[in-house]
Amino acid sequence: MASLEELRTIRIAKLDLLKKAGMEAYPAKIPRDFCLADARGNFKDYESSKKPVSISGRIMAIRGQGAILFVVLDDGKSTFQAVIKKDVLDSKLFELFTNAVDIGDIISVTGTFFTTNRGEQSISVASWTMASKSLLPLPEKWHGLTDPDEKFRKRYLDFIMDPESREIFKKKAKFWHVIRNFFEGHGFLEVETPTLEVTTGGAEARPFITHHNDFDMDVYLRISVGELWQKHLIASGFQKTFEIGRVYRNEGTSPEHAQEFTNLEFYWAYADYQDGMKLVQELYQIIAKEVFGTMKFSVKGHSFDLSGDWPSIDYAEEINKQTKIDINKADNNQLMKKIKELGIEYDGNNRERLVDTLWKYCRKNISGPVFLINHPILVAPLAKSIQGKEIVQMFQPIIAGSEIGKGYSELNDPIDQRKRFEAQKKLIESGDQEAMMSDLDFVEMLEHGMPPTCGFGFGDRLFTVLIGKPLRETQMFPLMKPKK
Fold first, then answer.
1. Which pLDDT tens digit goes with each residue over 413-443?
2. Structural domain of 219
3. Nearest to residue 317, comparing CAs of 309, 308, 326?
4. What pLDDT, on a 0 to 100 scale, did the predictor assign at position 143?
5. Is residue 330 one of the residues assigned to a domain?
């Protein structure tokens, strides 16, 4: 078998053949009347007119020999068969095609439409021209890119060889389109907030740090879609806002985690977490219906139906139900003992991390859809507490063992917020790299007054769960470590 470099050398020789024949190998424009999907959709009209038309696409297959060749073209929207006959095409063009054209080349063909004896929609080629000569071969047709790393490094080849991969991203584009339409239809204003921040806020995650040369200071790439900024807007009189944007978290990679992804957050003045649950349920059901065409899913070993009203489950009660430990009464040593007993890997030994670790163990067993409620204050530093209790007005949709969003009645008591930031600061000082940074400008804003507000955020994970794919497969170009 020839090496890749040997195959490239052969194709460069074919490139020279094109040049000697006076045909451009990389022209700026080629004859093309319509896409291949249009060719198929309006085939009968084009066939009956008998008028010459021009179509183009990448050659995915060539079969036949001698006086007739059958060529499969693909333009990313559809495929179409071009029939090249020696007695129809100019003899020099026919010879040039057989000697200089390879699978992978992008060409334009001109001719008339007809139906073959086997009923295949086709074009009888009267002339052709090169659109882009490929110097490297496509992957072997039946195996494609079998190495996952190569699929991500060479997405263009993955999309060429696997149309289903392309369909994932068409569906993902529709996913965000439906979401944007939903919020605009409910009177929310789309906003843009900073991606570079002096302090990160709105989530608990390790940030990326970069340097601002002009100000000569370090800044952070945001870890949430402007949560604290959107609350500034709510305080200023904007009653409904939302933002769809990229966030960055300097944490591990897993089927549900990446360092860069898309999130949405909305904020709704004069609403609480119960209002938020109703809105989120309606949104997720519309996404399921309009993007996926169903309410029933079977993914990751879970089956669930998003229709109807979703029940709520209590945070502490669910942990007790599954692990037989009461997080409200157990001390840190008892929590650590239970975690070790269950064989759970964990990072950090402060109470917040221990409780969260137990919950994540339990979460995997819940198919949903359910709303998780009554979280302890220590795991929700920005949520309003339920009066007289050490729990907050927070909710999380749980679907297929995953947390698919987080929302709450926003904490708008500046004194309470300052205390919680101080508690988070102590966690940072003790070595917790995911604890939330203090933002005293935000506290000052609250001291001017922010109305009761519900906020909620979710991101790419919802799409990955509903389509049943790991997160990296639903990212067009996931970050890859360079090859050595």
1. 999 888 888 887 887 777 766 666 778 888 9
2. 161-310+368-474
3. 326
4. 57
5. no
Give the pairing type, strands 196-197 and 260-269: unpaired
Contacts of 144 (CB under 8 A, 6+ apart): 157, 158, 161, 162
- Please state, in angstroms and rounded to a whole number, the distance separating the CA atoms of residues 327 and 323: 10
Burial 259-280 (b: 16+ CB within 10 A, else e): bebbbbbbbbbebbbeebbebb
User: Average pLDDT over the chain, rounded to whole?
Assistant: 91
CATH of the domain at 451: 3.30.930.10
Burial 429-465 (b: 16+ CB within 10 A, else e): eeebebbbbbbeebeebbeeebeebbbbbbbbbbbbb
DSSP bridge pairs for 81 = 72, 122
Average the pLDDT over each of 34-43, 148-157, 398-407 and give the range with the smallest value. 148-157
Q: Is the pLDDT of residue 300 over 60?
A: yes
pLDDT tier for residue 149 given thresholds of 50, 70 and 90: confident
Last residue of a domain, one of 104, 138, 172: 138
Query: Are 121 and 176 contained in the same domain?
Result: no
Q: Say whether pLDDT at 75 is over 60.
A: yes
Distance, in Å, from the CA atom of 304 to the CA atom of 321, rounded to the nearest integer, reads 21
Does residue 442 fall inside a structural domain?
Answer: yes
Sorted by sequence, the CB contacts under 8 Å of residue 130 that are 6+ apart come out as 18, 23, 24, 25, 26, 27, 100, 101, 105, 106, 107
Structural domain ending residue among the three candidates 103, 138, 173: 138
The domain total for the chain is 2
Q: According to the model, what pLDDT value does residue 202 have?
A: 65
Domain identity same for 53 and 107:
yes
Say what the pTM is: 0.88
Amino acid at 232: H
User: To which residue do tokens 């969003």 refer?
Assistant: 405
Looking at this protein, which amino acid is placed at residue 298?
S
214 shares a domain with 79: no
In contact, 203 and 436? CB cutoff 8 Å: yes
Radius of gyration of the CA atoms of the chain, in A: 29
Residue type, 266: F
Residues 215, 99, single domain; the answer is no
Is 191 found in the same domain as 103? no
Q: Same domain, yes or no, for 107 and 174?
A: no
Is 319 a member of any domain?
no
pLDDT of 434 reads 61
**Euclidean distance between CA atoms 392 and 375, whole angstroms:** 6
Check whether residue 94 and residue 187 sit in a common domain. Answer: no
Task: Give me the pLDDT at residue 439, please.
Answer: 81
| Helix/strand number for the chain, H first, E second | 15, 19
Q: pLDDT value at position 436?
A: 67
Please check the confidence at residue 84 and state whether its pLDDT lies above 70.
yes
In this structure, is residue 148 part of a structural domain? no
Residues 176, 121 within the same domain: no
